[in-house]
Amino acid sequence: MSRKQHIAIFTTASLPWMTGTAVNPLFRAAYLTKDGDREVTLVVPWLSLDDQKLVYPNNITFSSSQEHEGYIRHWIDTRIDFLSMFNLKFYPAKFSRDKRSILPVGDITITIPDDEADVAVLEEPEHLNWYHHGRRWKSKFRKVIGIIHTNYLEYVKREKNGQLLSLVLKYANSWVTRIYCHRAYFTVLLFLVIRLSAATQDYPRSIVCNVHGVNPKFLDVGKAKYAQLQSGEPAFTKGAYYIGKMVWSKGYKELLNLLTWYQNKFSGIQVDLYGSGEDSEEVQQAAKNLSFAVTVNPGRDHADPTFHDYKVFINPSTTDVVCTTTAEALAMGKIVVCANHPSNDFFKQFPNCYIYNDGEEFVKLTLKALAEEPSPLSDELRHELSWEAATQRFLAAAELDQIDDADRTPTPKRSFSSSLKPKKLKRNMENASAYIHQKMSGIEVARRAFGAIPKSLKPDEQQCRELGLVLPEKKKRKR
């Protein structure tokens, strides 16, 4: 009865790649251990040197997993005011250039020993399981919870044959999420799947809940800015900016279109863009064609002092699920101008969030934001942005703040005999579906046909040596 709950968090990216699935699960792991009531293990991908050079910025590379772990722990420990107590493990992975994503290699469930396999949190369960070939998550873990981070369908629709590809991907996402995340028969939820916002693909009977918070450093900046305003000092001396990976799909297309269509309304105004990415040159060229000042700058950490004095954050992106930079800007006390889109529903409760429905309203609200001072952020709303609040929302949504399932006495409305057959049938169908996926994912030709990285069924010799795994047996040559 005194055994602590063990939570294993599996995610699809790792620092120093500053993407949401690297940063947010790291904060989640730290804050879940803050009260000392749980044991938490964060499981992140390990990339060999060639892939590290493709993914990690500023030529940062690691010669060992121990060195990489040291970097991650230093990063998080300098951003929180308590000692993080989570464990950190790596699974072998490779970078897919065409998908611009990290994909697992081999059976990543083995990173957690069977005697610690209690609760698994799959950050991006569809992504982790597209090509999963190994032990079934629900056979190993008592409870498997999926958190949907990314609007993959929106990205795919922008590619060639996008509509057809999005239909295939929608089915694949639903399939792997259904067979690998748990059902909860006697609770409100049918599938233990949490969608950060309604902007994601709709999963049957999933729950929409923003279980992310912001780095506490942003809240500290916001408090300092509020103190400046209270004392009569000029707190915001710069105008409008946007920060994000510099690819068209990350809001730059929408932003440059709006600035181009209404450039005559922005005379005398400067907008600064910050980001690095594959489309940087095209974005710079588009900015040069505008009749007012739009500067394009290299990407940097949003917590950099460069951004503290900006008053207005413009974010027209509609591909995000819950935009981290929008939350960070609000935490710093800024006014945010963003589109009326499901990804921004959580932010509508904040007075400094200006929502526009069309181009004319975008112009009106942007000019209004530049002419006014931000409203003070109340203690209640500041708490809503914090990781303390996000952690409580997560525990409630995942039903981890309730009595253990094993100690529950279920009281279904229907009698046991009347409900047994439908449940058994559903379970059998799910088992058959999982069996088919298991077989298909173990065939190299089938994996390649659906976009898997070649030879990613098992870790290669280099990955095994780097992570201390058992080396694969070499096939004997026939004479």
Automatic annotation (TrEMBL):
Region (Disordered): 403-425
Catalytic activity: a 1,2-diacyl-3-O-(beta-D-galactosyl)-sn-glycerol + UDP-alpha-D-galactose = a 1,2-diacyl-3-O-[alpha-D-galactosyl-(1->6)-beta-D-galactosyl]-sn-glycerol + UDP + H(+)
Example of a GO MF term: digalactosyldiacylglycerol synthase activity
Subcellular localization: Plastid, Chloroplast outer membrane
Membrane is among the record's keywords: yes
Sorted UniProt keywords: Chloroplast, Glycosyltransferase, Membrane, Plastid, Plastid outer membrane, Signal, Transferase
Gene Ontology CC annotations of this record: chloroplast outer membrane
Keyword Methyltransferase annotated: no
Transmembrane segments annotated in the record for this chain: none
BP term (GO), one: galactolipid biosynthetic process
EC number: 2.4.1.241
Main location per the UniProt record: plastid
Highest taxon in the source lineage: Eukaryota
Family designation: Belongs to the glycosyltransferase group 1 family. Glycosyltransferase 4 subfamily.
Name this protein carries in UniProt: Digalactosyldiacylglycerol synthase 2, chloroplastic
Gene source species: Zingiber officinale (Ginger)
